[in-house]
Structure formats: structure tokens, C-alpha cells
Design a protein that fits this description.
Length: 280
């Protein structure tokens, strides 16, 4: 973590325009989400059927949906939900994946063999399909969608953490810790994993955008957040039925998903370049 916050890394980050652009969009969204109760022009939940499907205007900057709810207000509140989904599901995937992959890679042997075969089976399923299977078992809803997306990311982090541990455990400082009689748990937690942070941070920033996209996909299929929750995938699902008469209902939530996922991808790509020691 000290390496991540070092002056050299921060200087390289300032020179990386893609990372700055992604970070700027994400920070702007966070500010809007935090200040949402004070800045939204209308209640995002209360319907007004007399004002349904209105086009963008001075009163409703992005128009209204089929229930007469202000789309701009719902998009701003939706960022709260999407950001929560990204953080929680990525945390689940990262935490569980490291707990599975790191000890497996360090200890090796039969346990490592069977654990990795199980991970291979999970990797055989597309992430969104694995998330759908989990949420069907748990039941539809926002909380279960977060869990499902997080569990679908576990094999990715398990593979990555195992590969990183296999590389770092061959370093001389690990041999020195073993010679001093440190337990394998202490060696793994205190000496190996801190040296694996950079790739895990990059992977986390990349998969956070994917988690938001997958949760939106679950919402689109009716398996994620349920109406009237202002979640982008659910808004997009409802808006597709009005594409010919009121395209703005689906257009703006779709743009919100695209811009947010793009921002996380730009940030992740930028962090990968910044944290790569081979880059100048």
C-alpha cells in the first residue's frame, strides 16, 4: 500500500489521462450520489400518471418515465445503488477469492489440485450465467443480486491470487521468514499478500465496472432490484417497451450504465499502466 501511495506512483497517475478521466467521472458520480437528497429536482419514487412519458423539458431535464417519475432524479439515486453493488459484490469476490486462492497456492498439494479444479468448473460458466443461477436459487432482489454477482467473481480472484502467491513465495524474503520459524499463515498474510496488492487493486477496479453491468443485466431480466427501486437495469427493462413512443425512458439509463462502466474500465486500465513496474 505504501508503494501505491508513493510520490512516483502519484506522479505517473497524474500523467495518465485515461485514469484521470475515469476517476473524474467516478468522483463526480459519488458527489451526486452523496448529495442526491439535496440536489434532485423531484422525488424519484412518487409516481405522477398525469405527467407520464413526458419528453425532456425545462421542468424534467431528462423527461419522465411511464409512471411519471423524473428520470434524472432516478438516475442520480441509481448511481448510489450501482456503486453499492460494485463495491459490495467486488468485496465479496475479492475476499472469498483470496481466501480460497492464496492458501491453495502457498500450500500446494492435493488440496490445491481439487480447489483449482472446482474453480475451473466455475470458470466454465459465463459470469452472467453463473450470477443468474445463484440469484435464481436465492431469489430475486437487490441484496441477492449483489451476492450473486460477487460469487460469480470468486473464481477470477481465486485464480489471480493463487498465481500471485506462487510467484511471490519464491522470493528470498519468504525464505528468510521461513528460516525464522514464522508460520505459513503469518508468512502469507504479512509477507506475501501485501506484495500482491497492486494487481488485485487493478483487477478490482476493472471488475467493479463489470459487476455494475452484470447487476444491471440481472435487473433487466427482473432478477435484480425490483420496482420502484431506481436501479438502472430495471429502468432500462421498463423503458424498452416504450422505445418507439418515448425512447428517452430507456436511452438515459442506458447511457448512465455505459458511462459508468467505461469510467471504471478507464481507471482500471490506467492503474494497470501506472502500477506496472516495467512501465517507464
Amino acid at each position: 500500500m505504501r508503494a501505491f501511495l508513493s510520490g512516483r506512483i502519484l506522479r505517473r497517475l497524474r500523467r495518465n489521462l485515461s485514469a484521470q478521466a475515469g476517476l473524474a467521472v467516478i468522483l463526480a458520480g459519488i458527489v451526486l450520489a452523496v448529495l442526491a437528497p439535496a440536489i434532485v429536482p423531484h422525488d424519484p419514487i412518487t409516481p405522477s400518471l398525469l405527467e407520464s412519458r413526458l419528453p425532456p423539458s425545462s421542468k424534467y431535464l431528462l423527461g419522465t418515465d411511464e409512471m411519471g417519475q423524473d428520470i434524472l432524479s432516478r438516475i442520480i439515486y441509481g448511481f448510489r445503488i450501482s456503486l453499492s453493488i460494485g463495491i459490495i459484490s467486488t468485496g465479496i469476490g475479492l475476499g472469498a477469492g483470496v481466501l480460497i486462492g492464496a492458501p491453495s497456492g502457498y500450500r500446494g498439494g492435493t488440496v490445491d489440485l481439487w480447489v483449482m479444479r472446482l474453480v475451473d468448473v466455475m470458470l466454465a460458466f459465463p459470469t452472467i450465467l453463473l450470477a443468474i443461477i445463484v440469484v435464481v436459487v436465492l431469489g430475486p432482489g437487490l441484496r441477492n443480486a449483489m451476492i450473486a454477482v460477487g460469487l460469480a467473481q470468486v473464481p477470477v480472484y481465486a485464480r489471480l491470487s493463487r498465481a500471485l502467491v506462487l510467484k511471490v513465495r519464491e522470493e528470498e524474503f519468504v525464505d528468510a521468514a521461513m528460516a525464522l520459524g514464522c508460520s505459513w499463515v503469518r508468512i502469507l498474510g504479512r509477507h506475501i499478500l501485501p506484495n500482491c496488492l497492486a494487481p488485485l487493486i487493478v483487477q478490482g477496479s476493472l471488475t467493479m465496472g463489470g459487476a455494475i453491468l452484470e447487476a444491471a443485466g440481472l435487473g433487466f431480466l427482473g432478477l435484480g432490484a425490483q420496482p420502484p427501486t431506481p436501479e438502472w437495469g430495471t429502468m432500462l427493462s421498463k423503458g424498452r417497451m416504450y422505445m418507439w413512443v418515448a425512447p428517452h425512458i430507456a436511452l438515459f439509463p442506458g447511457l448512465a450504465i455505459m458511462v459508468t462502466v467505461l469510467a471504471f474500465n478507464l481507471l482500471g486500465d490506467g492503474l494497470r499502466d501506472v502500477l506496472d513496474p516495467r512501465m517507464a
